[in-house]
Amino acid sequence: MATILVVDDEPSMRLAVSEHLRRGGHEVASAANGQEALKLMAETSYDLLITDILMPEKEGIETIRDVRRLHPETKIIAISGGGRYDAGDYYLSIASQFGTDATLAKPFSGRELMETVARVLNAP
User: In this predicted model, what pLDDT tens digit does every residue of 62-106 receive, in sequence order?
Assistant: First the structure.
């Protein structure tokens, strides 16, 4: 299947997303923020990056921008719940402008996650 990097500052979200992907046959790594993600991407090639938007240290929009510049072949799915201001749709629309292949608003189901991953990975 695919090699996927999951980036989210919430450990429970990283674990849940990673477990769904592993059960789907994917090889999964994870990072707590964009800074960690870019370090991992300097060492390993990933087919897909799934990143939260609101994170400490290096947030998702910066991460998306850097991945597009450094690893243009990597597909990207942005995820967000919008934080305390419930602005998830706003952040996801900005992520789309920076070149994500898809977005998912939190909370999402395992089925929604796997359908989105399959669609993105199978896109030309």
Answer: 999 999 999 999 999 999 876 445 555 777 888 888 999 999 998
Structural domain total, the chain = 1
Q: What is the pTM of this model?
A: 0.93
DSSP state at residue 86? T
Residue 24, both tokens: 């789907």
Q: Which two tokens stand for residue 101?
A: 């292949």
Q: Which residue has the tokens 């909370």?
A: 107
CB atoms within 10 A of CB 67: 26
8 A C-beta contact, residue 12 and residue 68: no
- Distance (Å, rounded) from C-alpha 121 to C-alpha 124? 8
Do the Cβ atoms of 4 and 36 come closer than 8 Å?
A: no
CB 96 within 8 A of CB 2: no
CATH code, domain carrying 76: 3.40.50.2300
pLDDT at 62: 94
Angle of helix 60-70 relative to helix 88-97, nearest 10 degrees?
Answer: 20
